[in-house]
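Lecture notes, unit on protein representations.

Consider one protein chain, 257 amino acids long.
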Amino acid sequence: MSPSAPPLAGRRGLIVGVADAHSIAWGCARRTRAQGADLVLSCLNEKARAAVAPLAEQVDAPLLVCNVNEDGALPALVAEAAARLGGLDFVVHSIAWAPRTDLQGRVVDSSPEGFAQAMQVSCHSFAQLARLCEPHLAGGGALVTMSYLGADEAVARYGLMGPVKAALESMVRYLALELGPRDIRVHAVSPGPVPTRAASGLPDFDTLMDRARVQAPLGRLVSLDEIGDCVAFLVGPGATGMTGQTLYVDAGVHAVR
């Protein structure tokens, strides 16, 4: 009896936002590839390419550069990814950014410009990505983005990103409604705190991680592989009846606060 095919065999995915070996996007790439998917990865710029290129080689994936703040960068990324893969079956959006001053200050003191930039990069780029990928998801598929508990409740020192992630989770529900007729499913995954480069910009992030360890029913933080396995499930055959949800991968912190 021949072994069964991996659950994502034959599925084609674009993963946006790999920064280094500690990034959530890399966990998603590693685990979806392990389950059989063919991938294209993106990183922010040529500086990031040096750190990400060896990772892309590990999963046998082309690596493209995409800064969503640059005109034409996102359309070019999607067009090239779809051409290289012959279409798309899933997309993972794992990018977030805010100006440091706004990120580390109070929400009430945030600048209009900083708030708008944070919303564009961290939230509206997901809608742009969905619109660009829609024609390439001809047989349906899945779109996944990354959120955090601070979208659902006020988390001390999470600041500006809380309202931004709340908007992102709302966008997930509206995209699920609009794209559902084309059998395109949309989800947010909400990991617990993990020590990524992006998270290091938050004030007192070590304190946030320590608090999560204490509060989590599992008594620990989660790994990149655990986050990646959740994403692999959402984009695979076992989740075809699910859409419009935020799924927590946080060792249970969300359930006890």
